[in-house]
């Protein structure tokens, strides 16, 4: 249907028309039908073999889009973690520490290639297990995961160029714990640089998203990676603690919440273990009045609603210059109305399912707090599937800096909007958080971008773009968003003992 | 009859001023056979917090100096120390733990260490930072930034070389420092304060406290505005420091069980000592019309 826009006609501006979508027509379902080749039950991958957990315990992995159980996942216990580190140690001593960088690189190339071969199958599994829209797992998670293996494969025999003048050696066996928001991609971020630098790995996927990690073990077998070099153990928080506290772990690399990150710091205090922590964020996306507005609206939408907002670097605080706030928010609301929330496997879905019931409840609690503290809530009126965990894209206006929704990481499709008048006010508000992972800047003026980029206390600054990632681009935070970098030349240093 | 010499009252160096501890407490520094030399200020947790406030205030100014300017100022510090090197050597040897020959060697190594890092100020970025060849039409570059205020606790011995070896790589990139000097011989650090004051280094970039580790360690570890710690500690102290520092997710570098000799090793001077207290910032920008 064509409708006249509400904008007043003027001599300089044509009376424009716009397409209204809304619920006028239903989209036909467009499901991705590739077979994810799931098993009913999975096994731990230790010392190159699939093995039932010595703990004999299992738990179900639930499809958040349907609330149905997908597969039975082993819950690794103490004996399993002991075995995994023993394997990582012997894998290090027997094979990996003796192998040339060139050969380590060749294994990583193989893994990258095999992952590309099976990328559609893995993408479907990822969307079923984690709830993210298939277009994201297909076009972002999988290609980016393979790209990380390719990137670090090439570094394996060139490490001395990454650390000029340094003496360095690998840690040996390292423990890695990854989150549920980008399960396979985070696995690639962790495993690729660790192996390229000559370490061996015990890695634990998040409790709710273990399937692609355990499927990935099949690829390691197909690549004929020497046994013990990578060990994959599934489980919950207790399993993670066993890894962190294990005497065989010479380094811990963790991506997850700041709360758990601090617990890891306390647990490893005095142990001499190396650490990389990639923790939470509360990124400011700063829009100046000279920004290309339509482009900025798209960037803000992508910044907060990408992967249901389950992104540590999500642009969850929008700072708009006061003079354009009204028009900007109107355009935002209009854009949000056309976002499609629904079946993660549908190719037209923009926003999939919330990863778990627990996470959905956390989002609901924080949104309630926002309403209670006096911010104005706007939610899309889109329909939601009857089953599964879904949340409407939401924005809060009239947010002040002391509101919980401006300080705490929501990790969901909820945007908090604040305004500012001057550039110094924007900088102060943007930096007024314990976090410092990422930030966005939108302006047409180059010098303003460079000033903001220098002033924002964040590890990644996106200027006139948002949520861009690349294996060659280091990622990681300032302040309580953690330390160490993943990706790029800088990501190598954190997996080596440097002197 | 020999002239009666004037004795100097040792003072800590905070915010470009020579101060006593707010507590007005002192402890005696003794020479060979327990002979009294002077009273050293016994700085407190409150003194530490005050120093952090000052360091944070001047930190942005120091970080915004050009790398060339920071290099010249550090070189100037080297000049100040060289000119008074005999006095520093006498101060090191004062307590009788070291021969004057060893003390002279320590001073020479210390001054060379300052000059080494003075040369890095306008170069480390070229080695550590880079543009990143991302797949897409973006200019993507990673540059370093200083992390802010860093706490330093020096080894008891070598008192001067360990203090300089921990402080200078940290400030050369624009960080500021609150440092606790050797407890067993703080006198060289007190002289160093006078040299810092005449080196054009803005007051407050390096703050030197004297006193006891066990009294201020917990404040160093838990103070939220200290973003990093560069510490000489034993195992037990390390555990206390790392546990308390976890709440503010500090960047920590522990130099434990370091032998005295290790400080004299050429390899001890390193680009990576600078890197330990830098953050990497990566900026993306689209390329196009």
Description:
The complex is a heterodimer of chains A (499) and B (289). Chain A contains 16 helices and 21 strands. Chain A is an alpha/beta fold. Chain A starts with a strand and ends with a strand. Chain B is α/β, with parallel strands linked by helices and 289 residues long. In chain B, the strands form 4 sheets. Chain B has a 5-stranded parallel sheet, sandwiched between helices. The radius of gyration of chain B is 20 Å and the shape is globular. The interface between A and B is large, with 47 and 39 residues. Strand 19 of chain A pairs parallel with strand 12 of chain B.
Itemize the secondary structure elements and their pairings.
The complex is a heterodimer of chains A (499) and B (289).
Chain A: E1 2-4, E2 17-19, E3 44-46, E4 49-51, E5 58-63, E6 68-74, H1 78-96, H2 101-117, H3 119-130, H4 134-155, H5 159-162, E7 168-170, E8 173-177, H6 183-196, E9 200-204, H7 211-222, E10 230-232, H8 237-245, E11 251-255, H9 258-268, E12 274-278, E13 284-287, H10 293-305, E14 317-321, H11 322-337, H12 357-372, E15 376-379, E16 394-397, H13 404-407, E17 414-420, H14 423-431, E18 438-442, H15 446-455, E19 460-463, E20 482-483, H16 490-493, E21 496-498
Parallel strand pairs in A: 8-9, 8-11, 9-10, 11-12, 13-14, 13-18, 14-17, 16-17, 18-19
Antiparallel strand pairs in A: 1-2, 3-4, 5-6, 7-21, 12-20, 15-16
Helix pairs in contact in A: 2-4, 3-4, 4-6, 10-11
Chain B: E1 12-14, E2 17-19, E3 26-30, E4 36-41, H1 45-64, H2 67-83, H3 85-93, H4 100-120, H5 124-128, E5 130-131, E6 138-146, E7 149-153, H6 159-171, E8 176-180, H7 187-197, E9 206-209, H8 213-222, E10 226-231, H9 235-245, E11 251-254, H10 271-275, E12 278-286
Parallel strand pairs in B: 7-8, 7-10, 8-9, 10-11
Antiparallel strand pairs in B: 1-2, 3-4, 5-6, 6-12
Helix pairs in contact in B: 2-4, 3-4, 3-7, 4-6, 8-9
């Amino acid at each position: 249907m064509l409708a006249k826009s509400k904008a007043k006609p003027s001599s300089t501006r044509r009376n424009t028309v716009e397409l209204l979508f809304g619920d006028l027509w239903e989209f036909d379902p467009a499901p991705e039908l590739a077979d994810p080749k799931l098993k009913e039950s999975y096994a731990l991958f230790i010392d190159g073999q699939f093995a039932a957990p010595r703990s004999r315990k299992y738990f179900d992995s639930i499809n958040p889009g349907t609330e149905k159980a997908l597969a039975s996942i082993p819950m690794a216990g103490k004996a399993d973690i002991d075995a995994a580190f023993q394997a990582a140690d012997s894998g290090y001593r027997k094979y990996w520490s003796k192998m040339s960088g060139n050969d380590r690189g060749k294994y990583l190339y193989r893994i990258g290639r095999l992952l590309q071969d099976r990328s559609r199958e893995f993408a479907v599994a990822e969307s079923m297990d984690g709830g993210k829209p298939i277009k994201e797992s297909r076009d972002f998670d999988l290609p980016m995961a393979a790209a990380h293996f390719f990137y670090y494969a090439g570094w394996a025999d060139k490490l001395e160029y990454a650390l000029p003048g340094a003496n360095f050696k690998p840690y040996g066996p390292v423990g890695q714990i990854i989150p549920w928001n980008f399960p396979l991609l985070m696995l690639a971020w962790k495993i690729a640089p660790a192996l390229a630098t000559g370490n061996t790995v015990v890695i634990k996927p998040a409790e709710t998203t273990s399937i692609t990690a355990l499927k990935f073990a099949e690829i390691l077998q197909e690549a004929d990676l020497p046994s013990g070099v990578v060990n994959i153990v599934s489980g919950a928080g207790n399993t993670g603690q066993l890894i962190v506290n294990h005497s065989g772990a010479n380094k811990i690399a963790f991506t997850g919440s700041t709360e758990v990150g601090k617990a890891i710091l306390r647990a490893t205090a005095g142990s001499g273990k190396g650490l990389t922590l990639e923790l939470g964020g509360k990124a400011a996306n700063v829009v100046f009045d000279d920004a290309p507005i339509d482009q900025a609206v798209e960037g803000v939408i992508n910044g907060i609603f990408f992967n249901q907002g389950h992104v540590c670097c999500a642009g969850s605080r929008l700072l708009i210059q006061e003079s354009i706030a009204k028009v900007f928010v109107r355009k935002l609301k209009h854009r949000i109305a056309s976002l499609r929330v629904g079946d993660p496997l549908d190719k037209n879905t923009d926003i999939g399912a919330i990863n778990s019931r627990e996470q959905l409840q956390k989002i609901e609690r924080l949104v309630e707090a926002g309403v209670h503290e006096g911010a104005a809530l706007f939610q899309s009126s889109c329909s939601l599937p009857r089953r599964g965990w879904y949340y409407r894209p939401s924005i809060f206006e009239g947010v002040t800096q002391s509101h919980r929704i401006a300080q705490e990481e929501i990790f969901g499709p909820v945007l908090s909007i604040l305004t500012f008048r001057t550039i110094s006010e924007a900088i102060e508000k943007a930096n007024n958080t314990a976090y410092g992972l990422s930030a966005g800047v939108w302006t047409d003026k180059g010098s303003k971008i460079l000033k903001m980029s220098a002033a924002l206390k964040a590890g990644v600054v996106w200027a006139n773009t948002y949520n861009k990632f690349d294996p060659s681009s280091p990622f990681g935070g300032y302040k309580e968003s953690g330390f160490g970098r993943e990706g790029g030349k800088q990501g190598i240093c954190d997996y080596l003992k440097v002197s | 009859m020999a002239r009666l010499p004037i004795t100097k009252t040792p003072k800590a160096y905070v915010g470009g001023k020579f101060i006593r501890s707010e507590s007005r407490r002192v402890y005696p520094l003794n020479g060979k056979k327990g002979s009294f030399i002077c009273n050293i200020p016994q700085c407190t947790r409150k003194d530490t917090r005050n120093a952090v406030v000052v360091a944070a205030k001047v930190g942005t100014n120091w970080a915004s100096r050009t790398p060339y300017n920071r290099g010249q100022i550090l070189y100037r510090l080297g000049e100040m120390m060289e000119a008074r090197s005999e006095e520093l050597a006498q101060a090191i040897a004062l307590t009788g733990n070291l021969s004057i020959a060893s003390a002279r060697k320590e001073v020479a190594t210390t001054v060379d260490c300052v000059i080494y890092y003075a040369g890095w100020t306008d170069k480390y970025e070229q080695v550590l930072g880079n543009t990143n060849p991302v797949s897409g039409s973006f200019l993507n570059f990673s540059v370093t930034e200083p992390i802010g205020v860093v706490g330093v606790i020096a080894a008891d011995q070598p008192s001067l070389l360990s203090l300089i070896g921990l402080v200078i790589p940290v400030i050369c990139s624009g960080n500021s420092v609150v440092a606790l000097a050797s407890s067993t011989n703080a006198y060289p650090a007190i002289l160093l304060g006078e040299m810092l004051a005449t080196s054009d280094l803005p007051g407050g970039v390096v703050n030197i406290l004297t006193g006891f580790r066990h009294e201020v360690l917990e404040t160093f570890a838990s103070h939220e505005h200290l973003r990093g710690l560069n510490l000489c500690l034993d195992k037990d102290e390390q555990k206390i420091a790392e546990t308390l520092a976890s709440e503010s997710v500090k960047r920590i570098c522990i130099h434990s069980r370091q032998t005295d000799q290790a400080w004299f090793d050429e390899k001890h001077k390193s680009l990576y000592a600078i890197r330990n207290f830098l953050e990497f910032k990566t900026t993306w920008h689209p390329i196009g019309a």
